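Quick one, probably user error.
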């Protein structure tokens, strides 16, 4: 152990002993306790309850009950699980629905929002937004005949957007303001309530993508006046790879918004099999086709864990863990060429931290292939380290810093080429 880290290691043991969330680590499947898994911001660990649930789903609900399970547990899953996610984002019962991917849900809500603002032609986002959000907006603009303009706010430092940039971009021609927060590279956490208020003052609607924050950052869509929101369920909600996303529509907009596309699952009576479409008088109208039942059911026990732990407690630990890591960064990692790619203010940062280094990609490869550390890499030079408070320990943070320092100090990354693999 690097001698500079000795005091930090002692602190880590004390912090872990006092951690009220520490028992939740035992709720997850951890096949290799020596592995430092710091990628929960991309894919959360599997809860043990999910493994147990699948035993019942496969052996009883599907194998035994067969199609009868639609009426017993499957049909209402999109709304049942949506109602469980609702308090995690501060929504009301009936305002959240689970189904389809984040991208598909974005398409639904972008088109719905624009239908509510005819004649307003601008859409505001930023250069830190997740690319699928921007692709979706570009696709909607193309679909609607190129009558809208997408304006991207700059991030001068590559980390954050200034409040002045938001204010300068807003005028009465802006139909929609949409950002993802925390941002996927830097972890920057927008001033959600303030930006929503600014947008409303300008006559714009607001759509937030909470994929990198739901389950780790307190959200209050009701009291903040948010119009629309989406989020994935496989990061801090631990729903599993490709688990379906959720969407939120404020009740006042649901009654007016033009939900697209139409499909039988959004019909007011799917099993009437009418030849003409009539939208359901609920959030179900934003469903389209038959939901992916197996992956959807995996979300439920994982969400139950977050509800038990409480988002406020999760956030408190995430902020403390981030601050602890930044202290170690200043003491140990800055001296070997790393720079901090995330905000220093913990209130403006989500639950992951980016380290920047010119050799970030090759360093990441050494960590994964030799050092039993799993972060991830984002172009051009970001190593992302996700601190998932339900199962990440303070001692994991110290060990990660030790191994990061060793890899760079010994220049072990030089044994790897710079060719990017398909998945980074």
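Nope, works fine. Designed sequence:
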């Amino acid at each position: 152990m690097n001698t500079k880290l000795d005091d930090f290691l002692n602190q880590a043991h004390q912090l872990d002993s006092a951690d009220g969330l520490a028992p939740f680590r035992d709720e997850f499947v951890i096949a290799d306790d020596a592995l430092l898994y710091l990628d929960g911001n991309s894919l959360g660990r599997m809860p043990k309850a999910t493994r147990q649930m699948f035993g019942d789903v496969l052996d009883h609900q599907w194998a035994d009950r067969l199609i009868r399970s639609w009426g017993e547990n499957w049909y209402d899953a999109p709304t049942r699980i949506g109602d469980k996610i609702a308090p995690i984002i501060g929504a009301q019962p009936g305002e959240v629905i689970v189904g389809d991917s984040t991208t598909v849900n974005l398409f639904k809500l972008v088109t719905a929002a624009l239908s509510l603002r005819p004649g307003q032609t601008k859409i505001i986002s930023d250069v830190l937004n997740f690319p699928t959000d921007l692709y979706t907006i570009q696709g909607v603009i193309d679909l609607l005949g190129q009558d809208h303009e997408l304006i991207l706010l700059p991030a001068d430092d590559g980390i954050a957007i200034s409040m002045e940039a938001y204010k300068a971009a807003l005028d009465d021609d802006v139909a929609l303001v949409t950002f993802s927060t925390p941002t996927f590279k830097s972890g920057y956490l927008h001033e959600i309530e303030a930006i929503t208020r600014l947008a409303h003052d300008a006559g714009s609607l607001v759509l937030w993508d909470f994929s990198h924050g739901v389950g780790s950052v307190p959200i209050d869509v009701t009291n903040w006046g948010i119009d629309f929101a989406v989020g994935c369920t496989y990061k801090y909600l631990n729903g599993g790879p490709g688990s379906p996303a959720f969407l939120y529509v404020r009740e006042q907009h649901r009654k007016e918004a033009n939900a697209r596309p139409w499909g039988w699952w959004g019909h007011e009576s799917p099993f009437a099999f009418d030849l003409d479409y009539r939208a359901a008088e609920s959030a179900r109208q934003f469903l389209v086709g038959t939901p992916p039942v197996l992956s959807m059911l995996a979300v439920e026990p994982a969400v139950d864990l977050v509800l038990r732990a409480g988002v406020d407690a999760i956030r408190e630990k995430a902020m403390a863990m981030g601050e602890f890591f930044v202290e170690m960064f200043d003491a140990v990692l800055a001296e070997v060429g790393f720079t901090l790619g995330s905000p220093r203010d913990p209130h403006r940062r989500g639950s992951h931290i980016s380290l920047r280094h010119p050799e970030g990609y090759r360093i990441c490869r050494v960590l994964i292939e030799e050092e039993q550390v799993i972060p991830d890499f984002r172009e051009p030079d970001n190593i992302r380290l996700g601190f998932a408070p339900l199962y990440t320990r303070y001692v994991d943070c110290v060990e990660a810093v030790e191994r990061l320092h060793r890899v760079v100090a010994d220049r072990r990354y030089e044994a790897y080429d710079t060719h990017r693999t398909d998945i980074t």
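The longest strand covers residues 174-180.
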